[in-house]
Amino acid sequence: MTEAGSFFVDAVLVIPALSAALLAVLPDDRLTARLNVLAALLTFLAATVLFFERPAPGHYLIVDDLNVVFIVLSTFVGFTTSVFSGSYIAHELETGRLTPVYLRFYHAMYQTLMFGMNLALLSNNVGLMWVAIELATLTTVLMVGIYRTPAALEAAWKYFLLGSVGIALALFGTILVYLAAHSVVGEGLDAMAWNVLVRRAPEFDPALLNLAFLFLLLGYGTKVGLVPLHAWLPDAHAEGPTPISAVLSGLLLNVALFAVLRFKSVMAANPGAFAPGPLMVSLGLLSVVFASFMLYRRHDIKRMFGYSSIEHMGIVTFAFGMGGPLANFAGLLHMTLHSLTKSAIFYCVGHIAQVKGTQHMPDIRGLTVSHPALGWGLVFGVAAIAGLPPMGLFMTEFLIVTTTFARHPLLAIVLGLALLVAFGALLLRLNGLAFGDPRGGRAPARASFVPVVAHFALVLVAGIWLPPALTAWFQHVAGLLR
Amino acid sequence: MAIALQLLVQIGQMALVLALAPLFAGYVRKVKAHLLRRQGPPLAQPYRELLRLLRKDVVLADSASWVFRVAPYLIFAATWVAVSLVPTFAAGLIFSYAADVIAIVALLGSARFMLALAGLDVGTSFGGIGSSREMLIASLAEPAMLMLVFTLSLLAGSTQLSSIAASMQASDVGLKFSIALALLGLIMVALAENARIPVDNPATHLELTMVHEAMILEYSGRHLALIEAAAFLKLLLYVSVIACVFFPWGIALSGQGPAAYFAGIGVYVLKLAAGGFVLAVFETAIAKMRVFRVPDFLGAALMLGFLATLLLFVTMAG
Amino acid sequence: MALQGLLWCVGALLAISVAAIPVARRRWASPAVYGAALCSSIVGLGLALAALLGGGALLGALTLPVGLPWLGAHFRLDALAAFFLVVVNLGAAGASLYGLGYGTHEEAPGRVLPFFAAFLAGMNLVVLADDAFTFLFTWEFMSLTSWALVMAHHRRAGNAAAGYLYLIMASFGTLALLLVFGLLAGPAGGYAFEAIRAAPPAPGVAAAVLVLALIGAGSKAGLVPLHVWLPLAHPAAPSHVSALMSGVMTKVAVYGAVRIVFDLLGVPTWWAGALVALLGGVTAVMGVLHALMEHDLKRLLAYHTVENIGIIFIGLGLALAFGANGMRAAAALALTAALFHVFNHSVFKSLLFFGSGAVLTATGERDMERLGGLIHRMPLTAFTFLIGSAAISALPPFNGFVSEWLTFQAILVSPALPQWLLKFLVPAIGALLALSAALAAACFVKAFGVTFLGRPRSDAARDARETDRWSLATMFALAALCLVAGILPGYFIDALAPVAQALSGAHLPRQGELDWLTIVPVAQSRSSYNGLLLFLIIALAAGLGAEVIHRWASGALRRSAPWDCGFPDPSPATQYTAGSFSQPIRRVFGSVVFRAREEVSMPPPGDPRPAQMRVRMRDLLWDAFYAPVESLVAYVADRLNKVQFLSIRVYLSLVFGALVALLTVLAVWQ
Amino acid sequence: MDPLALDVAHLLAGGLVLVSFMLLYQDRMTGLVNNFALHALVVSLSVAWQAHIQHAPHLYITAAIALIVKAIVIPLALHRIILQLGIHRTIETVVGIGQTMLAGIGLVALSIMVMLPITARAGTLTQQDLAFALSVLLLGLLMMISRRNAVSQVIGFMSIENGLILAATGAKGMPLVVEISVAFSILIALIVIGVFLFRIRERFDTVDIHALHEYRGEQP
After folding, report:
1. Which sequence spans correspond to the domains of chain D?
2. CA distance to partner chain C, nearest, from residue B35 (Å)
């Protein structure tokens, strides 16, 4: 059944590309919003088929245990985000923050972004993946700056420059990987294909791999938002349109980290190469500690959750750095659940900022009184992101901390305390936002809560019961990652 | 049949203590008066007071609740039962296994609890003073008491007064320094618990110095009579405890015949006389101390208890 | 099998909580939810009782395919779990029954009803859990739901802060437990309790586990110095929830400690016993001293929870010390005392919180200085509260005394211990226990006397009305239980025998068959207690006295104004207040423990200003442990926050620096 | 492969590093832009030479792109921007030129230290190319962080990119080089357009902290 599979793989890429072109030319905004949703939905459906029909890996595209989950996840979040952005954009048009022209541009860019990310996830070729990630970065840069306020422009610039440097470093690393490969595999596309790389990795020159991984970690790590390469992330989250913040936190960070994982699996397969563990552990731990303290002095709600994304990316990096079947499993699961939770949080935050007319947290109070759905949604989201049961992130943090403590007690203690500090900051803000006497606008939110509910339902279920298939894939990948 | 007989003896003991308690109080007063070169009231004076109070009407404050009216009966009953559990002239009476010394102390605690509540019930300022100071003294006295119990149980391997008396009678205990310390501590606790000088003055009605009397200011008639009787019983109880633990000679052990019982009664009365005399001398010899010196006094008792325990460890190890 | 039944009850509770979300605003929602919760708790109580008394016939284990995929959720019902389930479901049933009446006064049912049922479910699950993941999952779930209940009245001043501190401390405890299980399970992740039992940790590891477990469970139980959240959070919740948190949830925390230390950790070490017992003694005294300084009725009760937790931990510590020296019978005695006190405290603390809730609904006041004289307006509530006060003050013939008496008996066995430290330490702990018991009596003379006796200090207190029938029924039932457990303790001790047998390898001699229901923990000649007999004789003597006096002496009674040494003052302001009642104890203890300072400002003669006295107290523990952490976090946050405001060029140089540094490392490393 | 070819390749690659140093040395705007044109020229030459000796015709495209876009179009555009925005003719540096040069030397040393042992097995040509490419990359980064001026930072970034192109061509037979260079050209075009659109005169790193406060919605 592989040709059917390959058909759907192509669909996952073609639909966004076509709809991007289409949306770029269509004038009417009502229609375009719906079209956007429709395209995202079709992409998602096409992607879900990949669960059952996997094509044989080609020169450029591949579907395997690692990316099948993430491709479905990213198309799903892309779909829900498009639904959310429908109601979000409508409000923006009314308030006049966006003109129809920019809206057309926005939708085209949205689909382009989807295309870029799907390509990056599906690509079986290091160079192709690099191009795809650069494409995704560029589109997000343009969307972050879309409001053209000084703050937005500055955020876009910062993102753009740091991103470009990161991209450059990643490219150098990619070249080095090719060099390491082509002396073994021979010249040509094979030397850049994932499945080949992983299979032949043991014969590669470890020294080259080490240098390459160093560049790749720094390059893609910039996209992941690891401290000290993180500077662009909070502002990009704060100043762009909220759907983009959701996609950034929910998907783009994942895609970049996914790239790092691909290369880590290559490293892991090579006995001579140094274990990337310590490097990733230190970067991850640094990110967690730094972000958790940065949460305290935040006043902009979206920027705060941007920092929380840094924290969680740090946790995941830490987990993969620790390695071992349990920690790797936890890391993969954490990536998945974090993207679901964080994007849902941003949906809530977007509506909150719209009804309250501000992102400035001290001006927002008593949401559970004035807007129960939004308020309790936020409470649920924060509880989930803080790793409280019955939500899924509890499982991952449980696995990470317990397994780490058995091996390196000190690391686990630092990590745990950092998590506690971060939780303290989030809960402090949550107390202010969700409880107390209401402050700020009281207009009812005209929002579709379907995306939020869908995400939270998934997170809740994952906390209690995981599908065996998912477990099997993740465990296999965890084994590959060592 | 045997049970009936034992029950009879027990009831006899309860009647005996009830009869002796006022007499003992009067006797102490008399001795104190003599020591002060006064004539003093006749020995039977306490009986007269009780009877007079019983015959009078009760004048009850408007703001008093049922607690105020129920308290005297409970206080009286609890104290009386507590005394009846102490081996006075005979050990191992039928009730005596219902409570060990800890439980006896706790019974007195229940009585105190009710009394303190009664002091607060009417809602006057003096009742409050009395209750709060009484509870302070009690809270300091109980740890000291427990340390002493600890010493005794270490000596006798039991907290059951009858067993303690029996094993103290058996000569193998010998004379240990710890016993003296324990005796001293127990005396201090007894003085505090019974509102005697130097902790409190049973004769005073100077508002700011009184503790026990302040709580019962609002009482009158039969209620007051019951509370006074309870106070007499409590004093008798502590003297009896000291007597049966430290001077256990002549106490009839279980299984001995009626003759032993009557001998025991005689010895018991003699012991009371001696104890009362010592108490009177002590009370006339020293002065009452300020309320906030009481913690030091009872702290000293606690220290004695500790010391007794530690020394006992040493002597036992040796 | 009982386990399935209990899990079904839990499922029912969860279903209730979900179903309550949409309908919470309806008028019938509150009785419906509480009624349903009552039914399921009663069923659970019955099942747990059957399992506890059934002699192992109904115990068992099962695994559900949820939770960690490769592990599943293990559940197990053993004697220990059964006993704690009895405590949990008894408290739950009481709270639900009380809620039937109390819930009608609730202004925000939407914030209470769903979480109430979920909270009950969570507590049941913690006790049933049989693997590390399920245990911590449900443990934290319990914290989360109770936090939501604390935040139910979030607009009242201070509640939000209380909830914040509570959840942070709870997460801190959970973190400690995470580390505990990290150590016990090992890197391979053997999370099932059987696996952990099969591989007991090395001595050094065991020590770390013990300390972490004390931190984890202690922070939830309110062990000093981890107690700071408790007196803030428990009173903030609605009163029946306060009763659950104080009476039951702290017991679940004790269960956690017992499960880890006694069951999973294998053979204890004697110093562990010393540590635990000492912590318990300090906790008991600190808790009761705090309570004495407190004028808020519900906070006073919360501080007493701290005290009783201390008493329980004294028993546990003694059990550890005895067990470490192979003195099984003594260990069983201490353990039985602790567990019996767990049961007793859950009963009378719930009763007292219900009483305070009744007062709160009747007067809207929690501050004792504005109450008084309620016994005239609410006699029945006052009666039950009095019984609760006597029970918690460890006065015979009520249940509180029996468990403390057993603890004393255990302490009196301590001279047989070989270690000299224990020989000397345990008597001192006994003195602490006696002190806390006596102070508790003083504190409840204050609580009951100032609240219910005397003359009303405010209009609210004057116009109070007796509370509703449901609440009264609950309170009377619990009061009756206090008395029954006090006069027939033998049966309760026998019920605890299997638990003691399982945990300490021995159990107390059977008490049920002894003549006249005397309880004899060790030997007849050593010590014995018979609550029933005492109760009967006292009743008899009191009745006799009353009869005689009314028959042959005067029964007449006249009402008049109080005498008060001749100068009575009609204003209720002249009666003793809570503050003045505790003043002597504050002078004696507070000046040391709380640095209590009194400042009297006496205006000069002729100056109409009122004289004032202000009392300043400081919580030294807070200053020692919590304030530094607070300021440290703030300091670091401020320092790091500067990084938010750098220029792009500097950020680029960060990247550059990282790159160059790593390259250098690589170059050197090769 | 005949030594002459190697020497030429070596000459061109080394020349690139030299030009990077010249970029670091420049403190006049126009001179900088011209220098960069030279930089791009050298790159295109070396790429073309690689195409010749590797017999990889598609690399000629890359060379052409480099030549047209970066040696001609962009310098002209930059000159126009400088004129239109009235940018200062002098370049504001963070630390003195001298220190920057010293640091550059250190970086070159570092990159050689790192590269040579690693790429020992990868053939001399690749070896040199990679070593030089890494040096160019690091020098470009150094330039970006040691210059306050927007245009000079853009130029620094473009020199990084030249280094990467060099590396990519140095990696023998690497596919997608053309695509990658195209993608990069798009990136650079965007940067330049950005500079122009957003009227970023002197610097896009705002050093005014208060402005940043206001920008980042962080007023308490």
Report:
1. 3-215
2. 31
